[in-house]
Amino acid sequence: MATQNIVIVNTGCANISSVKFAVERLGNQVTVSDDLAIIQQADKVFLPGVGSANAAMASIEKKQLISCIQGLTQPVLGICLGMQLMVEKSEESLSDNTPCLGLIPGQVKRMQVGDLRLPHMGWNTVTPVADAPLFKGIDNQSYFYFVHSFAVAISEFTMASCQYGMDFSAALHKDNFFGVQFHPERSSDAGAHLLKNFIDL
After folding, report:
1. If both were cysteines, with which of 69, 106, 113, 167 could 87 make a disulfide (CB 3.0 to 4.6 Å apart)?
2. Which InterPro entries does the record associate with it (predicted)?
3. What is the pLDDT of residue 167?
4. Which residues neighbour 144 within 8 Å (Cβ) at sequence distance 6 or greater?
């Protein structure tokens, strides 16, 4: 397969190096950029994020990346907060809802997990829907690594679900936009397999 032009969007709010190393380990060259032209020319785009939705959206807006990301037609993979930024809004800010990128219908809400502790942190099993493209060749109930207190409910756009005091979307998919709540770059072989599946789309 020809070498692909893979770009990680420098949102200004993510530990990008771990995603970059994970993709490079699969034999790919990676560019980290917030340059609109470079992002638009990519074959595959990664949208990582950590921290709060309002800080991340403010950073993306400041870099004038919102309409650029919304207009992408190639496969885009949001990771952790990057996935949460793909939906319509997040209630992570205490004062009001943060409008997000609106690429996939849904909203981010604080997890209701009873007596379990938040954040949901560590390894948990993931159940993909049938024919989920990113989970091709990955065993059902494989373990992935999570760190989050907010989640997106199950919907028709859920590509995989997870259970922690409640069911939530472990992965989302609509059109060319994919998102995973877990960290594939920290999820051992299953995570590497998922990243390869995305790059091979």
Report:
1. 106
2. Class_I_gatase-like, GATASE, Imidazole-glycPsynth_HisH
3. 98
4. 123, 124, 125, 126, 162, 170, 180, 182, 183, 184, 187, 190, 191, 194
Domain that holds residue 47: 6-199
CATH number, domain with residue 136: 3.40.50.880
Cα distances (angstroms) measured from residue 49 to each of 19, 25, 128, 181: 10, 20, 22, 10
* From 68, 162, 185, 193, the catalytic residue: 185
CB 11 within 8 A of CB 82: yes
Amino acid at 129: V
pLDDT single digits (tens) 9-36: 998 877 799 999 999 999 999 999 999 9
Q: What is the pLDDT of residues 112-171, one digit of tens each?
A: 999 999 999 999 999 999 999 999 999 999 999 999 999 999 999 999 999 999 999 999
Crossing angle (nearest 10°) for helices 188-199 and 16-25: 80
Residue 34 counted as domain residue:
yes
Dist. CA 16–CA 2, nearest whole Å: 24
- Out of 120, 148, 173, 183, the active site residue is 183
Which amino acid does the sequence have at 77? L
Over residues 75-89, the pLDDT tens digits come to: 999 999 999 999 999
80 given a catalytic annotation: yes
Check if 183 is active-site: yes
Q: Which of 68, 80, 100, 162 is catalytic?
A: 80
**Residue 2: per-residue pLDDT:** 61
